[in-house]
Amino acid sequence: MLLLAFALLLTTALFGGVLAALHLRTEPRPPGPIYGAIHGLIGVAGVVALLLALRGPPRGAAMGVGDFGRVAAALLAIALLLAIPIVFVRLRHRRIPGLVIGAHAMIAVSGVVILAAYTLVG
Questions:
Q1: What is the rounded radius of gyration, in angstroms, for the C-alpha atoms of the chain?
Q2: DSSP characters for the chain?
Q3: Residue 68's CB: how many other CB atoms inside 10 A?
Q4: Which of 15, 16, 120 is nearest to 59 (CA)?
Q5: How far apart are CA 49 and CA 43, in angstroms?
Q6: pLDDT tens-place values along the chain, 122 residues long
Q7: Range of the domain at 64
Q8: Structural domain count of the chain
């Protein structure tokens, strides 16, 4: 289950990177809302899978990463909370400020990197 969560969240991060690059284009039209919805649904599925995986036996304590799973889950939950204003602004067909996208991406990528350390150890 942990590998599934990691794969889903890596896919979400890749998709989010593409969306951010498309958003930063000089053309006035950002990508359609369906792409953001897919990005969000995969991200939510990844966080749910991670939370389910964390219910299992503890891992990584011998390597010093025993709490990384919970830290990653907390960071990814914060990234999900930061996505709520993005959704509301996007539903109003307005352009999302780059600072909001950057904050969301920074926290989400931090969670994925910490999850990578947790998943790939042991």
A1: 15
A2: -HHHHHHHHHHHHHHHHHHHHHHTSSSSPPPPHHHHHHHHHHHHHHHHHHHHHTTS----GGGT-TTHHHHHHHHHHHHHHHHHHHHHHHHTT-PPPHHHHHHHHHHHHHHHHHHHHHHH--
A3: 20
A4: 120
A5: 10
A6: 999 999 999 999 999 998 888 877 766 666 677 888 999 999 999 999 999 999 988 777 778 788 999 999 999 999 999 999 888 888 887 777 888 889 999 999 999 999 999 998 86
A7: 2-120
A8: 1
What is the spatial distance between Cα 103 and Cα 116, in angstroms, rounded to a whole number?
20
Q: Amino acid identity of 56? A: G
pLDDT attached to residue 36: 87
